[in-house]
Amino acid sequence: MAKVRVRNTGELIEGEENVRSFLEKQEVLYEHWEPSKLPERLQENFDLTAEDKEEILNTFDTEIRDLAGRRGYKTWDIVVLSESTPNIEELLKKFEQIHTHTEDEVRAITAGEGIFIIRGDESVGYFDVILSAGDVISVPEGSVHFFTLTEAKKVVAVRLFIETEGWIAHPYEDPTFVK
Ligand SMILES: [Fe+2]
Questions:
Q1: pLDDT in tens, 103-121
Q2: Strand ranges (DSSP E) for 33-98?
Q3: How much distance in Å is there from the Cα of 112 to the middle of ligand 1?
Q4: In angstroms, what is the span from residue 118 Cα to ligand 1's centroid?
Q5: Where is this site: May play a role in transmitting local conformational changes (predicted)?
């Protein structure tokens, strides 16, 4: 279940309703899918064939189409990142640059963990959303943010797009941000 850590205060927000209500105020969509719907061999598996990825998409077809229907996503795929991903260190360096997109960034974590670091409103500042299997998030269009992995360095996620080009990252310089 997702947790939020507010960087300026160190406050940790836990519990589905608390997390959802905090994220709602920051206009970040947060939902939950049931990761145990996946066959056991696809839970916490980071070495996926094309058929496995198809099976994950099929398992969550109802959830994907429901979310897509509500929010206008037209295409989706699966992304897998782990220490066996070629150039993982380089990829992470790229992901960890602060940026914005012209459409929202939607990720449904089906295995492993990931962290979105998002700039909230002025009173909140940057906060980390720590996600695990079953967590679904949408970082709003234009939001200043970046993504990284946890120490486990493993994630499988469904990505949904309105237009795949909408996801191109636009770098954002923020001298006030301290990692
Ligand atoms: Fe992004």
A1: 999 999 999 999 999 999 9
A2: 75-81
A3: 18
A4: 10
A5: 104
**Could you tell me the pTM of the whole model?**
0.95
| Range(s) of the domain holding residue 65 | 3-163
Evaluate if residue 158 carries a pLDDT over 80. Answer: yes
Spatial CA neighbour of 45 closest among 169, 171, 154, 167 = 154
* Position 153 in a domain: yes
Percent of the chain clearing pLDDT 70 (strictly above)? 100
| Residue 168 domain flag | no
Q: How many domains does the chain have?
A: 1
Which residues fall in the annotated binding site?
Answer: 99, 101, 105, 145
101 is a domain residue: yes
- What φ, ψ does residue 133 adopt, rounded to 5°? -55, 130
Residue 95's CB is within 10 A of a number of other CB atoms, namely 15
CATH of the domain at 137: 2.60.120.10
How far apart, in Å, do the first and last CA atoms of the chain sit?
A: 24
Residues comprising the binding site for Ni(2+)? 99, 101, 105, 145
Confidence band for 167, pLDDT divided at 50, 70 and 90: confident
Centroid of ligand 1 to alpha carbon of 55 (angstroms): 26
